[in-house]
């Protein structure tokens, strides 16, 4: 807020009060004592005009203040979305090349391992081949980190007590820190559970703490780790998260801080301010990838000489889902017709086959307009619609909204890629069931159980299929 | 001698995997996609199938489903390079469909040969 909007308004109001009182006194004095009617009327009008002007100025100042606030928030959200989209593009690119790259690496490491069988122990040939193999493995690890950023690691998610994972990371980190770096932590998850793989939360905390420790390698300092439950209201905040309960992990350091111009780039893969060879620059990208995949977000706040604070928000819930097998929840029985929409033909074929294996009848289509056409032909025949959010032409949200206008109780599951940009565009009150790619069969069944289990009345079974 | 059917679309990877398994003492037949793999299995039953996941024509998940349906006792090892078409977590799906072992490429030779040996030891 600028000075004209704050102190300026107060000064104007004060001046208006003083001048109005003076005019009122003059009115009384001049009008009644001297009985000069014309002058009294002029003074009255002047008073009214002056008061009206001041009221208008105050109203404009308040309006400007609100407009400036809304504009600032819009810019922050836009900047966040731009960053998320940029990172998503890098992730898609990485996912696209990883398959071919892994094949090439497999051939290199496979032949090297076979050649090693014939290399005499202690020979130059053996040590050369071992170097080739070590490099192939380093490359493999790098591709895996890129994939972890792009589309997530495999494995099933559970209702996780993130607090115990963070405590474990703090304990491990503390053991490896030099004496010049102090690590303090406050961990209270407030009984909230995060639906995640333990390794995902472990990686977030480890990368952030390692990053903080590396920033203070030279001069030492203090790392503060704080985990707590927070609630984000309908107004949200700069990270454009859906309203609801979150666990907020904050990792702060007292290191040299980050230039403001570099803040936007710290989550990009391979971005590093460290010396060449001192780090891959993947740690913060992996944190961003995991947070986005879990439906959360990560922000950074820093200035040169003032350390850095990284804040991760992860959606959390008080609901305790059973661990392990039970995490799949009630499993809908395989009956009825499912409309599955995704512009990726290979994915449609695969998911359709899986759903058919589960006993459903599946209409798999790659185009929203075609899906809408099929839906209109038999409005009541579709038991549930599962659609990708981002598709050429009509997107999943628009498609679902159109279908809901025709059949308001239609169960809908929307699927998004790892990026928070698409997930953020979904109205979670209207469409609460979201599948984040990549998903496994159990995850698919779990969300289907949530979407049609309770709503399908007697048609569902809680027995595992 | 135990017989292995190898399904892999990438020619160099296929050749390398074939050499690796043959040198370990197995008889190996290799094909370039799932359709050819199913045809080979129908023609001369194998003791183990090692299949890639992302392949043209008939990809690995579909192949595993059909193999599990028609030959429920036939062990399958799935190998995926990850990435590409996105969407499902292929190896988790392969495991859910009954693949005995799943590996992300590039696989360590010892790990793969160990898995093959343990399948045949059962």
Helix content of chain A: 40-55%
Report the total helices of chain A: 12
Number of strands of chain A: 12
- CATH architecture label of chain B: 3-Layer(aba) Sandwich
Strand portion of chain A: 15-25%
Number of domains of chain B: 1
Helix content of chain B: 40-55%
Q: Could you tell me the mean pLDDT of chain A? A: 78
- Name the CATH superfamily assignment of the largest domain in chain A: Histidine kinase-like ATPase, C-terminal domain
CATH class of chain B: Alpha Beta
Q: What's the rounded overall pLDDT mean of chain B?
A: 88
**At the first level of CATH, what is the class of the largest domain in chain A?**
Alpha Beta
Main pleated-sheet profile of chain B: 5 strands, parallel
Q: What is the chains' assembly state?
A: heterodimer
In DSSP terms (H or I, runs of 4 or more residues), the helix count of chain B works out at 5
Largest interface: A-B, 49 and 34 residues
